[in-house]
Amino acid sequence: MLKKAARERSSKLLNSSTSDSLIEIGKILKPHGLKGEIKILLFNKSSRVLQENVPVTLKNDRGLSGDFRIEMIRYGSSKVIIKFFELSSIDDADTWRESIIWVQKELLPPVDDDEYYLLDLVGMSVFSDKNEFIGCIKNVLSYPANDVIVLDYKEKEILIPAVDEFIKLIDFEKKCLTINVIDGLLDG
What CATH number does domain 20-107 carry, 3.40.50.720, 3.30.1540.20, 3.40.50.300, 2.40.30.60? Predict the structure, then answer.
């Protein structure tokens, strides 16, 4: 039976230049005000991992990367505003526009025995219910209806809904996942 997934999200596969202990939790949208505050999008809207004095790493597609510490954070109903000690002006904040916010995995709250973080599935081997190797999980995406497992199968990307109909067993010790293969599932 499929375990309940905790809803922190890693939207991209962690590459080899990134420590496995860092996970993506949000994205900087734009500066807010003149004093270096920033409006952010949390990938998990209910997450409260970000708090005052929590260290984060910011990375963007322009090659910028830096370590920051949260000075202040305000959670609103439709937006989250954050201020880092290291940023003091609108120009400082604008430099980090569109950057991804990363935190240490150990900062995430512990999960119950019947839960896991979606990012824990990345890298697992996938087998059919007849014990045939299918591929390795390269990502897990979160959508409103359900989560979707992304895996490579015969040189193409296959998407498998992470629901009980398809996922039969997750073995974290052996790092493998068993799926029920129905007609058309692997046609991509």
Answer: 2.40.30.60
User: Residues for the chain: how many in total?
Assistant: 188
Q: Which residue spans within 76-171 are E strands per DSSP?
A: 80-84, 100-104, 115-117, 125-128, 133-142, 147-153, 156-161, 167-171
Instruction: Please list the pLDDT of the chain residue by residue as tens digits (188 residues).
Output: 344 444 343 333 333 234 468 888 899 999 999 999 999 998 877 788 899 999 999 999 999 999 999 999 999 877 899 999 999 999 999 999 999 999 998 888 888 877 888 888 989 999 999 999 999 999 888 777 888 999 988 888 999 998 889 999 999 999 999 999 888 788 76
Q: What tokens appear for 16 in the block? A: 């080899």
Residues 6+ apart with CB under 8 A from 30: 38, 39, 94, 97
- What number of other Cβ atoms are within 10 A of residue 47's Cβ? 19
13-24 burial, b at 16+ Cβ within 10 Å, e below that, comes to ebeeebeeebbb
What burial letters (b/e) apply to 151-184, b meaning 16+ CB within 10 Å? bebeeeebebebeeebbeebeeeeebbbbebeee
